């Protein structure tokens, strides 16, 4: 079995130079002062970056040319370079492959729905959780992303949407989900910092609603407890994938350290502190975890809890032995869960035509 990291926050090895999005409001003011500028320049930069979505200092026309050159070089190094993007669903779903400063590849997915615009961001390059059915997990962990590398994915999505590049005309980014490449809570400090950049009101951040941000985890119990103490009210999503420890030990290897009961207790504690219902993510895998009795067991486990089940038709990777459950099996599974009074839905399967599962586009590249 692949070994799992003992720490949740790897050192800064390989991360990019400091970027404006890495910095809190106080750190921004300190940074511009250290560069010889007045503290108010930090607020000007924030209005440009988080308000106008500008990351090219040459376009920050409310700053003197000399300040643009100085501050731009120091605080806005290029972090993400688009390798390519692919589209489906008549252009309303766009997956982008990004190259980072060190050549590392990561992905984000932008999805326009009738009532919202969601971007799915990566928090790590690769993943160390070793779930065998996941394209990212098959490749292992390369490194953590910096706070700014995470935020830049959301800002880039907001820029595309505001420019009207998606069908339906200009629209504001409304939702962010940390369900791309990586285990977000294994990069805890930078993910937590990026959450503040996303929810802080303009001009300090993008000003998104906390309720519209979802952070997923395979169940790093100490990190879930730590997130509960942050004072944030983002949605927690637990990638469970099996209701019994025997199977989950295989599908989600971290379960050998924190069992299903411990994971659900941590999620319950999060729900109690935040008042927010959490989501149970469950990939439906043919003949592996889709038996009707497992649906009953999952319903029994969650009955009375502040939880919602989100069933995910598996998006199989090329050459993989794992496949999606048949529709009639999925429907029976839904019925078994619902019979216990548990809320359950099936995720909209977007992106199958464009290697929509996490890691597939990067693996091809």
TrEMBL record:
<protein>
    <recommendedName>
        <fullName>Probable dual-specificity RNA methyltransferase RlmN</fullName>
        <ecNumber>2.1.1.192</ecNumber>
    </recommendedName>
</protein>
<dbReference type="Pfam" id="PF04055">
    <property type="entry name" value="Radical_SAM"/>
</dbReference>
<dbReference type="InterPro" id="IPR007197">
    <property type="entry name" value="rSAM"/>
</dbReference>
<feature type="active site" description="Proton acceptor">
    <location>
        <position position="107"/>
    </location>
</feature>
<dbReference type="InterPro" id="IPR058240">
    <property type="entry name" value="rSAM_sf"/>
</dbReference>
<dbReference type="GO" id="GO:0008168">
    <property type="term" value="F:methyltransferase activity"/>
</dbReference>
<feature type="binding site">
    <location>
        <begin position="239"/>
        <end position="241"/>
    </location>
    <ligand>
        <name>S-adenosyl-L-methionine</name>
    </ligand>
</feature>
<keyword id="KW-0479">Metal-binding</keyword>
<keyword id="KW-0698">rRNA processing</keyword>
<feature type="binding site">
    <location>
        <position position="134"/>
    </location>
    <ligand>
        <name>[4Fe-4S] cluster</name>
    </ligand>
</feature>
<keyword id="KW-1015">Disulfide bond</keyword>
<dbReference type="InterPro" id="IPR013785">
    <property type="entry name" value="Aldolase_TIM"/>
</dbReference>
<feature type="binding site">
    <location>
        <position position="216"/>
    </location>
    <ligand>
        <name>S-adenosyl-L-methionine</name>
    </ligand>
</feature>
<dbReference type="InterPro" id="IPR027492">
    <property type="entry name" value="RNA_MTrfase_RlmN"/>
</dbReference>
<keyword id="KW-0819">tRNA processing</keyword>
<feature type="domain" description="Radical SAM core">
    <location>
        <begin position="113"/>
        <end position="353"/>
    </location>
</feature>
<dbReference type="Pfam" id="PF21016">
    <property type="entry name" value="RlmN_N"/>
</dbReference>
<keyword id="KW-0949">S-adenosyl-L-methionine</keyword>
<dbReference type="GO" id="GO:0032259">
    <property type="term" value="P:methylation"/>
</dbReference>
<dbReference type="InterPro" id="IPR040072">
    <property type="entry name" value="Methyltransferase_A"/>
</dbReference>
<keyword id="KW-0489">Methyltransferase</keyword>
<feature type="binding site">
    <location>
        <position position="315"/>
    </location>
    <ligand>
        <name>S-adenosyl-L-methionine</name>
    </ligand>
</feature>
<dbReference type="InterPro" id="IPR048641">
    <property type="entry name" value="RlmN_N"/>
</dbReference>
<keyword id="KW-0411">Iron-sulfur</keyword>
<feature type="binding site">
    <location>
        <begin position="182"/>
        <end position="183"/>
    </location>
    <ligand>
        <name>S-adenosyl-L-methionine</name>
    </ligand>
</feature>
<dbReference type="InterPro" id="IPR004383">
    <property type="entry name" value="rRNA_lsu_MTrfase_RlmN/Cfr"/>
</dbReference>
<feature type="binding site">
    <location>
        <position position="127"/>
    </location>
    <ligand>
        <name>[4Fe-4S] cluster</name>
    </ligand>
</feature>
<feature type="active site" description="S-methylcysteine intermediate">
    <location>
        <position position="358"/>
    </location>
</feature>
<keyword id="KW-0963">Cytoplasm</keyword>
<keyword id="KW-0004">4Fe-4S</keyword>
<comment type="function">
    <text>Specifically methylates position 2 of adenine 2503 in 23S rRNA and position 2 of adenine 37 in tRNAs.</text>
</comment>
<keyword id="KW-0808">Transferase</keyword>
<feature type="binding site">
    <location>
        <position position="131"/>
    </location>
    <ligand>
        <name>[4Fe-4S] cluster</name>
    </ligand>
</feature>
<comment type="similarity">
    <text>Belongs to the radical SAM superfamily. RlmN family.</text>
</comment>
<keyword id="KW-0408">Iron</keyword>
């Amino acid at each position: 079995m692949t070994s799992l990291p003992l720490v949740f926050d790897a050192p800064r090895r390989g991360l990019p130079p400091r970027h404006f999005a890495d910095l809190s409001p106080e750190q921004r003011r300190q940074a511009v002062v250290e560069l010889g500028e007045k503290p108010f320049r930090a607020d000007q930069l924030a209005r440009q970056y988080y308000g106008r979505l500008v990351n090219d200092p040459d376009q920050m026309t409310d700053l003197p040319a000399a300040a643009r050159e100085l501050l731009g070089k120091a605080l806005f190094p290029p972090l993400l370079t688009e390798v390519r993007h692919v589209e489906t669903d008549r252009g309303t779903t766009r997956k982008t492959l990004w190259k980072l400063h060190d050549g590392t590849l990561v992905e984000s997915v932008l999805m326009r729905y009738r009532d919202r615009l969601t971007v799915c961001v990566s928090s790590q390059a690769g993943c160390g959780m070793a779930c065998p059915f996941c394209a990212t997990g098959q490749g292992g962990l390369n490194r953590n992303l910096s706070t700014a590398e995470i935020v830049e994915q959301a800002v880039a999505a907001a820029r595309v949407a505001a420019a009207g590049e998606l069908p339906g005309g200009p629209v504001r980014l409304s939702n962010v989900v940390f369900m791309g490449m990586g285990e977000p809570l294994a990069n805890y400090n930078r993910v937590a910092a990026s959450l503040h950049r996303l929810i802080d009101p303009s001009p300090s951040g993008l000003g998104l609603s906390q309720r519209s941000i979802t952070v997923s985890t395979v169940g790093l119990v100490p990190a879930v407890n730590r997130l509960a103490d942050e004072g944030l009210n983002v949605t927690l999503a637990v990638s469970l994938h099996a209701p019994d420890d025997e199977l989950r030990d295989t599908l989600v290897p971290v379960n050998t350290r924190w069992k299903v009961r411990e994971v659900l207790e941590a999620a319950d504690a999060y729900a109690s502190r935040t008042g927010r219902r959490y989501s149970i993510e469950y990939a439906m895998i043919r003949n592996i975890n889709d038996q009707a009795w497992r649906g009953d067991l999952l319903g029994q486990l969650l009955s009375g809890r502040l939880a919602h089940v989100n069933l995910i038709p598996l998006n199989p990777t090329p050459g993989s032995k794992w496949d999606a459950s048949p529709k009639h099996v999925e429907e029976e599974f839904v019925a078994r869960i619902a019979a216990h009074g548990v809320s359950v839905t099936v995720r909209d399967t977007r992106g199958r035509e464009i290697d929509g599962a996490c890691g597939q586009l990067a693996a091809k590249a």
